[in-house]
Amino acid sequence: MKANNLKIWTLLLMTLLFFNCKNEKKTELTEETIVEEVIEVIEEPSNVIDIVTRSMEFQSVDTIPSGWNTFKYQNLSNETHFFLMDKYPEGKTVEHTLTDVAPSVC
Known about the structure:
Layout: H1 2-20, H2 31-41, E1 48-54, E2 57-59, E3 70-75, H3 94-100
């Protein structure tokens, strides 16, 4: 009886070890694979408006399509620049902005 129990336990243990031992190598996530996966997920926006600064000139399209747009700014000047877009409330103009918001010129 003890010999049969020992054989059964040995067979059971060997069966469990056989099915639990895998030959697959674990793959580690590296920065490169993560970046590749993120790039695959990110979609390029459909409406991209390019704005370029050369010296003191801002160059862009004349008309912007309605809907969602992505603005891509490239500063090719040696100076720091940024672009600003305003939607003025009814009755307000750029003159109000220059007198009330813009820094005064000495």
